[in-house]
């Protein structure tokens, strides 16, 4: 298990390119370079994270399923004894893709499905009809059953603020785990008052809970404060050149004082409020799982 809280959980951005145009994703504000992670970069970064026994999640500002090596790399990480999850959206799914995804055997699959209200879903994700998205999600869930852990993640917005109970019940009736998180401003980058209104922001304690136990790595191996940095302004290092211990030390130095990044002063990500214990990081998978289950977006938002 990781020797430092910083690398307990790592989002690895295979690409920051995506064909979807979801309203809650401020893709138009991305100004850092766009592209796909090269194989040599993946090999170096993944080897370091595997040695650290980090929980790796293929996520970020793009569609991981669009990367030509995604299934091979999931299998490779699993075969080396490390845990890997992947975040997908229904638009990227079809019968062949879903079958390959399940066969690559990630530890977990999270399907982003913002709402079970047809009009809300199609407003937020207008590139795919609701019925198609639902069909593809259920197909993946059926293929995953008994093989890969799968959950559906929704998002409450200004047009779906009272949906939580119905959302969870809808998926529970289909024997699928589900939850909803509150739409936030992605570090001040989301500016769409129709679906999102800023209510509270900043860091009361001066420290960010998400930054403490989570690390974000771009497709270029750049380590940024978090995935909400769309410009690259919060660069902490690069995992091609820097050892994990160096990055972890830099993060710990940042945490000793108020977060120095402008991005943080306009952030309302709920997990920023999480107060991490001062104890050591999880010693095994069971402790890590218990830690993440203990974090409740509802109580933080």
Rg for CA atoms = 18 Å
Strand order of the largest sheet: 6-5-4-3-2-1-7-8-9
| Terminal-residue CA separation | 29 Å
Beta-strand portion reads 5-15%
**Largest sheet, described in full?**
9 strands, mixed
Quaternary organization: single chain
Class based on secondary structure composition and strand pairing: alpha/beta
Indicate the mean pLDDT.
91
Shape label = globular
Tally of strands: 9
Overall description:
The longest helix has 15 residues, at 130-144. Helix 3 runs parallel beside helix 5 (130-144). With 301 residues, the protein is an alpha/beta fold. The chain has helices at 39-52, 70-79, 95-104, 118-124, 130-144, 164-172, 209-213, 244-255, 285-294, 297-300, and strands spanning 9-12, 55-58, 83-88, 108-112, 149-156, 177-182, 214-217, 222-224, 237-238. Strands 6-5-4-3-2-1-7-8-9 form a 9-stranded mixed β-sheet. It has 10 helices and 9 strands. The mean pLDDT is 91. It is globular and about 50 Å long. It is 32% helix and 14% strand. Strand 1 (9-12), helix 1 and strand 2 form a beta-alpha-beta unit.
In a few lines, what is going on in this structure?
Helix content is 32%, strand content 14%. The chain is α/β, with parallel strands linked by helices and 301 residues long.
């Amino acid at each position: 298990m990781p020797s430092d809280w910083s690398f307990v959980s790592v989002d690895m951005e295979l690409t920051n390119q995506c064909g979807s145009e979801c309203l809650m994703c401020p893709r138009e504000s991305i100004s850092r370079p766009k592209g796909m992670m090269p194989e040599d970069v993946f090999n170096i970064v993944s080897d370091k994270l595997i040695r650290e026994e980090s929980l790796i999640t293929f996520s970020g500002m793009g569609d991981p399923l669009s990367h030509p090596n995604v299934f091979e790399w999931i299998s490779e990480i699993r075969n080396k004894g490390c845990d890997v999850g992947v975040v997908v959206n229904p638009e990227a799914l079809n019968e062949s893709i879903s079958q390959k995804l399940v066969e690559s055997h990630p530890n977990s699959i999270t399907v982003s499905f913002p709402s079970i209200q047809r009009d809300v879903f199609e407003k937020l994700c207008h590139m795919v009809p609701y019925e198609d998205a639902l069909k593809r999600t259920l197909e993946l869930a059926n293929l995953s059953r008994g093989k890969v852990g799968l959950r559906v993640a929704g998002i409450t917005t200004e047009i779906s603020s009272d949906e939580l109970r119905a959302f969870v019940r809808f998926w529970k009736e289909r024997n699928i785990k589900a939850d909803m998180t509150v739409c936030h401003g992605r570090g001040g980058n989301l500016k769409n008052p129709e679906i999102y209104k800023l209510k509270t922001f900043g860091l009361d304690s001066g420290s960010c809970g998400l930054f403490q136990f989570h690390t974000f790595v771009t497709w270029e191996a750049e380590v940024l404060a978090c995935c909400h940095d769309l410009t690259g302004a919060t660069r902490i290092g690069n995992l091609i050149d820097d050892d994990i211990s160096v990055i972890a030390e830099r993060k710990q130095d940042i945490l000793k004082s108020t977060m120095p990044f402008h991005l943080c002063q306009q952030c309302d990500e709920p997990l920023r409020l999480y107060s991490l214990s001062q104890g050591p990081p999880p010693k095994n998978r069971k402790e890590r799982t218990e830690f993440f289950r203990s974090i409740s977006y509802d109580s933080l938002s």
